[in-house]
Amino acid sequence: MAPTTDEDPVPLAHDHGGGVHSLRVPIPDNPLGHTLVHLLDTDRGPVLVDTGWDDPAAWEALTAGLAACGTSPAEIHGVVVTHHHPDHHGLSGRVREASGAWIAMHAADATVVRRTREAEPGLWLDYLASKLERAGAPEAHIAPLRAARASGSAGGLPGMRPALPDREIVPGELLDLAGRRLRAVWTPGHTPGHVCLHLEEAHPGGRPGNGRLFSGDHLLPGITPHIGLYEDPDDATVTDPLGDYLDSLERVGRLAPAEVLPAHQHAFTGAADRVRELLAHHEQRLTGLLTLLAEPRTAWQVAERMEWNRPWGQIPYGSRTIAVSEAESHLRRLVKLGRAEVAPGGEPARYVAL
Hints:
Order of helices and strands: EEEEHEHHEHHHEEEEHEHHHEE
Oligomer: single chain
Strand order of the largest sheet: 1-2-3-4-5-6-7
């Protein structure tokens, strides 16, 4: 996306036609730049799909974008959350405070929200430090987490007090939106309860295909979403997020929407083609990992050698943690497919190709 100048300002809102608008809500200190919050007109009032990060500048942008669409936070009827991450769910509580709006979320992500609110914040630092230790991270990477835990600074982590949803999004069912046909499509992978929302109405521009899809972070036009491990300190189940994501991609590809309205970057067509690209990308990545696993390696060692958007030495601290989680999701997938195994020898776990 080309940078803008003062002579070429980014509009506060974009009209996609048929009672659908997108609002650019900034994400502080994040290379993604912004979340595309979508506004859907209904016969009972405007409904938001996601809300953006809980930050004063984001709230100001959301309010200004709504004003450009002829409405305000106080008039919002409901909030549909694609997934629990703070750049999507962050402002939901503030919107509800302003309007009395309901908040809807898939049960799996609502469980994450509830657990996050109830847990002592230091638990998450302990869990993350332990997980990184099992992944083979060096002590220099884990030490800041231990220091934050010892100093009691865990309460500053983002998204530790997310709003509790009061409605459940049920996969396959139409949401209760007067005058609109918006169907929930469960697409786990990026989070366990991620949903896409299929607007089962003719495209206002007459484009061929089956309506429009609010895709959240599941399907993006130019980047691949992070597929890491589902975070649950109390659940020892060995999940397969990447397998969930690939299955979800195929489900969305079969919908063949006329247009995709994602939460980042820009709206696009050709959903089935994009799905094929992403499936091929992950298969290529899995196959490439098998070469790395010619000898046993930890998830950290694999992450160091994987191809990212910059050399490993230039990846910031927090992004390295995310990268290791993504590496481990790919390793788990290889194990489940019978293409790799965990080598004997205890922790940190080492993976080897079969």
